[in-house]
Amino acid sequence: MTQTAPPTKPRDLQSWEDFHPDPDFYVAVKKLLKPNTKIFTMGSCFAFEIRRALREAGFPIFPHYLDTRYDPTVQIFDKVNERNSVFHYDTFVMRQEFEEVFGLRTDREANFHPVRDAHINRILNTDEAYQDPTRRLVYAKTLPLLKELSTAISRVTREGLEKSDVIVLTLGLTEVWPHVSTTWNFCLPPGLGLGGGDNMAKFKISNFGENYKNTKAIIELILSHYPNKHIIMSVSPVHLERTYAQTDVGTASTESKSILRAVAGQVTREYARNVTYYPAYEMAQFSRERVFGRDGRHVVPEFVNRVVGGFVGAFSVEPRRRAKNPESVAS
Hints:
Number of helices: 10
Order of helices and strands: HEEHEEHHEHEEHEEEEHEHEHHE
Oligomer: single chain
CATH class: Alpha Beta
């Protein structure tokens, strides 16, 4: 007499008993990605890793910062020639980029300032260089050259947003540096990078309300101009390198990520039709495999590839079969 095997009980991802032995993560599958779907990315250093992996997977990625015209002998634009990417660590810096794209900010030049006796002066071989502190590592030998470079970066950012079909935003940290006399924020603390900006910004620990307001403003701006574009949000699992708060960096990093994860959850519920959360942060927390490199902060390429593999599988028009690994994404 033959025996029939009992039917397999479907896993209940809402139950710790089912989730814990082999973590899967629920993502609301939306058919967003075709082979030539253009993807705009912005965010922290983890956004760079996602950007790189998506490009390697064959997707056109924007902004295409290599299209920025500048002369590296007299103008410095981060490390764009090495990685074709720019970091935006916090929601304040991200918001001001979108507000400029949509014409709500027209006074970026109010932040430009001279820099003397810093590393940038030796690089550009000049006693006085100029910096745009609202972006990461943007300098020039003269003020007109800095204005020219800033305009070129803004143009490439605007063109990338216009061309893209899907927008991926990665939230990084909550420690921010508001300018002391303008309404803009520094991208890096004063003095970091190649120097400049000493005493021109003050340290601030931003809270849930502020980051929620920024993120919501970004979403509203995008959807008011491009109602058919879809936004995918994630939180970077990369820990803070240093905290400027009066606590240890581990505690500061945990607080920062917790606030941003709560913000992402709130806005994706409010804008569920156009905004989806992708659990890259959670995948790092529950991974059974190696996530971080020797420094304990940055993620290893293998983990990024697992994240992007699940991302592509969840959002492709023709979903790929779910990979059998702890980081697989349940749909």
